[in-house]
Amino acid sequence: MAANEDLFKKITSHAKEYGFVFPSSEIYDGLSAVYDYGPFGVELKNNIREYWWKSMVQYHENIVGIDAAIFMHPTVWKASGHVDAFSDPMIDNKDSKKRYRADVLIEDHIQKIEDKIQKEVDKAKQRFGEAFDEKMYRETNPRLLENQSRIDTIKKRFYGSFTDNNLADVKLLIDELGIVCPVSGTKNWTEVRYFNLMFSTQMGSVNEDTNMIYLRPETAQGIFVNFLNVMKSARMKIPFGIAQTGKAFRNEIVARQFLFRMREFEQMEMQYFVQPGTELKEFEYWKTERMKWHTSLGIPATKYRFHDHDKLAHYANAATDIEFEFPIGFKELEGIHSRTNFDLSAHQTYSGKKLQYFDQESGESFVPYVIETSIGLDRTFLAVLSHGYREEKLEDGSERVVLGLPSFLAPVKLAILPLIKKDGLPEKARVIMDILKYRYRCFYEEKDTIGRRYRRMDAIGTPYCITIDHQTLQDNTVTIRDRDTMLQDRITVDGISDIVREKIKAV
Ligand code: GAP
Question: Where are the beta strands (DSSP E) in 82-221?
Fold first, then answer.
């Protein structure tokens, strides 16, 4: 774990050093859990967003996009349940004065028992080799069964207490499990209390309660309140989806872990409106579809897993998370939820407007059910960045840091590098740059040795470097260097564009 935390720190400082992510307002010592994207970060972020948009909107004829405002009528958040229930159960340790989410403390405790089980399974696997039957082992080994039964008991109690809103019992459970504060190591806890996560501000010049509005904590409600407008104006027929990307704001109490938990972040959400009764089939479809999207980023399937929710919100009839193995462990990257007709019905009640679909075939009107796919852009950025980061020892004993980003997402696709800064090489390189920069995001650099420039390009994940040398002036050929293999090929200047286009295609 320590090694991974170390890796996480290295990724964070690499992101800053190479212009991907900076702490917000850093000259004023930063603002907790708020970050700015630098020159290469913004390119990577834009590329991820664009790929998501294409996959969802362009490749699905029945999905359209919107861009709703961040500010919304305050009643939206009353109807959606955020005013009354968008809060986290928090507990403070009196010695360290640190605040934690009570549910996360319990989930971490469960995870520790699960890790113990996994360790035993791995050990047995090694001992028995090919003959090992994992299913049988898990079903019969007494120690494993005992630990599994502990997990089941904790989960039952934990979900029961939350469902009943019994925070006193959550506190009791934390005491009984002997959970200690990771900082002070003591069990000196306060009671568990709820904190609402929405930021609020005033609209207009008069500071009155009636003017209070919220910064949206999710983009989804902008989609629900535009359901009728979109359906009518774009002539959509069920099933159809509305997609949106944009900022969301949450006053996260425990805000840490770099881009993983931010107070201002970006979501990419899609609400898919379906006929009631078909929602579970559609839910399964979107589970598969979204997992395919993740692995299409060139990241192995083993880095992802589904985490089906045992404890469902009262309005949901199925929910799962796609978790990614970040350096800090497997954590939620995307949520897929079957939300029934909860949101549209609530907005119908609060607004007094009919939010229904008229089915011409059956002649009936109904409030559609909704499948939601909701992914964090910043978390996807972090997943791609942390998967791509690697430190390599080279044959000559030197070391390099490479960002093995999927080529089609890389901030810079192509570096144009004259070997030296004289003999007409920069001029020739400029001619090539001026042609290619209109097709790809290129980066021109002539300062420093070519080896240093290659290293810098490796560190920002540039998949290809084009080097212009003396031979270029004679036969119009250049070398193209591959970031991952470091191998170089000689190709004609006219062939660069086609070769690069082929290499940077999305998977
Ligand atoms: N509309 C549903 C919704 O907002 P959520 O699980 O609360 O669901 C969806 O959020 C996704 O948004 C998460 O899976 C995560 O990727 C991202 N997200 C949520 N809170 C975040 C935070 N504080 N910082 C960064 N990303 C966050």
Answer: 87-92, 99-101, 193-196, 199-202, 212-215
d(Cα 167, Cα 498) in Å, to the nearest integer? 62
For 330, the token pair is: 């497997």
Tokens of 96: 């360290």
Q: What are phi and psi of 134, to 5 degrees?
A: -65, -40
CA of 350 to the centre of ligand 1 (A): 25
Q: Set out the domains of the chain in order of their start, with CATH numbers.
A: 1-70+210-388 (3.30.930.10), 97-179 (no CATH), 412-503 (3.40.50.800)
Q: How far apart are the first and last CA of the chain?
A: 32
Integer Cα distance of 351 and 367 in angstroms: 14
Q: 68-104 pLDDT, tens per residue?
A: 999 999 999 999 999 998 888 999 999 999 989 899 8
Q: Is 66 exposed, middle or buried (0-12, 13-18, 19+ CB in 10 A)?
A: middle
pLDDT value of position 254: 66
The residue whose CB lies within 8 Å of the most ligand 1 atoms, and thus the one to mutate among 88, 311, 323, 332, is: 332
- Percent of the chain exceeding pLDDT 90 equals 85
pTM: 0.85
> Looking at the DSSP assignment, which residues form a beta bridge with residue 468?
418
Instruction: Dump pLDDT digits (tens) for 237-259.
Output: 999 999 999 999 999 876 678 99
Mean pLDDT of the chain: 94
Q: Looking at ligand 1, which atom is closest to the CA of residue 259?
A: 25
Secondary structure letter of residue 93 according to DSSP: B
